[in-house]
Backbone:
């Protein structure tokens, strides 16, 4: 057993989990439950009263966090300590949204001036493009941006840009390419004019296989359409650490934006990786995004555990995963602009906390990261909500909704809100057999049929959910929301005693993928791998079954 599962508090939580009353009873016995189990921070409101939790539950969870030295670990992250121990790196995405007056040290140097310098460089670039001053090789202004990246270099900019669509610069459009499947970039290029297209290549090494392949394809398309090698600098910029490779490609050194080792890919949208976001929404709004995240950073760093929004959300998720065997967690966004957010949180959480050993290499004997999934309301209500209400698996849910819509048409938003709040009530309350039977009292069915149908209409309820509200979806509230989930993920990793900032599983897939690529291009059949891999590679090379 690990130290965590041997702890007295862990054992107390395990025993306590078997004695928590149904939420119906909790609400019936405590009229102040909503007020006592909700809080506001950084433009967000969290209602966590619809959880299988009592005051004793929360006290035990806070004690577990204290035993795990959570507050010390939070301070270590913000201070720039080497908390990514396997890669010997600091974890300082929070520095990207710091204020210019702060001083944050990494590797013995204050990194805030370099962060601010990069933001100023981004501002000048954004102004040049959005004003029309930046011209393509035929003298025309840029109309389309193509962002080429993979993982965090792709998903963060795409999801945030999509979420902030109401703030887009009217004259610009943006296209995101990540998948190495040739269909993806081919379909994007069909929509574009090379004279007015700007490509942003995001790769720390300037060698990430998918990103480099797509960028080379884009360059070949540009040259085939009439551009010259000398024109590449007018249509390609890069976010990379490898200046030499980028300049060899044809990118002007002045149009290369830095990346830093102390920023992981899934935490990088706040950096120059966010250049597509800044181009689309303008630099003032991009700085608003940073400011919202900074406010959440300050809240996370300073609020007591019992008043700390990321801490509360992280502990409740751990509560269900470790003591109720919840294998997944669903994120439900009741705003069309936020429809991509579940996929972003999926990468953030699963790439961070999908680990099976502690920091010192001990095998873990408890569940770590859950499967994160979800979608937008009300679409999901006509699909997977059935599983949430009547399935046998316990699936905690987060409901996210702005109180005000960017597109207030008739009763649309009222109906959307009523569905969101109604779903949280239904998950908590459920429907008893007696209630279902009473609903059928006036039907023409026989008594036996009524009782049978009533059984099918029973919903146990007691299904936990959080509700997150904001006045309106703005750059500031979105920044705070994303930072909230970043820190929620950190909380769980800190208590599980794992490294939430490496991703060796991703790295292994890359290595083996490159090995398979070499074998695909070989002149003879493959025999040196396992029978399945050999057979599949040979079938692929034949091009038919």
Residues:
């Amino acid at each position: 057993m690990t130290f965590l599962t041997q702890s007295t508090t862990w054992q107390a939580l395990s025993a306590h989990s078997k004695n928590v009353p149904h939420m119906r009873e909790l609400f019936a016995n405590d009229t102040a439950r909503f007020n006592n189990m909700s809080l506001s921070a950084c433009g967000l409101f969290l209602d966590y009263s619809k959880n299988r939790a009592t005051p004793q539950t929360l006290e035990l969870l806070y004690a577990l966090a204290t035993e795990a030295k959570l507050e010390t670990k939070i301070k270590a992250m913000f201070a720039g300590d080497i908390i990514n121990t396997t890669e010997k790196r600091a974890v300082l995405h929070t520095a990207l949204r710091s204020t210019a007056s702060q001083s944050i040290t990494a590797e013995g140097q204050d990194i805030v001036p370099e962060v601010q310098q990069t933001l100023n460089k981004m501002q000048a670039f954004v102004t040049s493009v959005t004003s029309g001053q930046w011209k393509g090789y035929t003298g025309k202004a840029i109309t389309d941006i193509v962002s080429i990246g993979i993982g965090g270099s792709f998903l963060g900019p795409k999801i945030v840009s999509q979420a902030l669509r109401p703030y887009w610069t009217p004259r610009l459009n943006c296209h995101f390419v990540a998948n190495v499947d040739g269909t993806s970039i081919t379909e994007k290029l069909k929509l574009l004019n090379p004279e007015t297209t700007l490509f942003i290549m995001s790769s720390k090494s300037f060698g990430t296989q998918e990103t480099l392949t797509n960028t080379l394809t884009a360059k070949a398309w540009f040259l085939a359409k009439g551009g010259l090698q000398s024109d590449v600098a007018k249509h390609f910029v890069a976010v990379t650490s490898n200046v030499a490779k980028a300049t060899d490609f044809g990118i002007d050194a002045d149009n290369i934006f830095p990346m830093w080792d102390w920023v992981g890919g899934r935490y990088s949208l706040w950096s120059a990786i966010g250049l597509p976001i800044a181009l689309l929404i303008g630099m003032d709004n991009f700085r608003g995004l940073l400011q919202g995240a900074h406010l959440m950073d300050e809240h996370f760093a300073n609020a007591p555990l019992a008043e700390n929004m990321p801490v509360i959300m992280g502990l409740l998720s751990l509560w269900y995963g470790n003591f109720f065997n919840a294998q997944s967690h669903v994120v439900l966004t009741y705003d069309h602009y936020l429809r991509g957010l579940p996929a972003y949180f999926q990468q953030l959480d699963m790439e961070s906390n999908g680990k099976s050993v502690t920091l010192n290499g001990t095998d873990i004997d408890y569940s770590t990261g859950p499967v994160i999934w979800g979608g937008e309301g009300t679409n999901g209500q006509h699909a997977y909500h059935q599983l949430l209400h009547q399935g046998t698996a316990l699936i905690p849910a987060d409901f996210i909704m702005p109180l005000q819509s960017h597109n207030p048409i008739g009763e649309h938003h009222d109906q959307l809100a009523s569905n969101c709040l109604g779903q949280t009530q239904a998950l908590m309350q459920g429907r008893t057999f007696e209630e279902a039977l009473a609903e059928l009292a006036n039907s023409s069915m026989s008594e036996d049929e009524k009782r049978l149908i009533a059984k099918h209409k029973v919903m146990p309820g007691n299904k936990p959910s959080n509700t997150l509200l904001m006045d309106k979806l703005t750059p500031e509230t979105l920044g705070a929301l994303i930072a909230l989930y970043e820190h929620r993920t950190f909380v769980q990793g800190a208590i599980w005693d794992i490294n939430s900032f490496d991703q060796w599983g991703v790295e292994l897939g890359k290595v083996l993928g490159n090995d398979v690529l070499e074998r695909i291009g070989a002149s003879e059949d493959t025999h040196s791998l396992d029978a399945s891999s050999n057979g599949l590679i040979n079938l692929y090379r034949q091009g038919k079954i």
In short: The mean pLDDT is 96. Residues 378 and 419 are 7 Å apart (CA to CA). The longest strand covers residues 397-404.
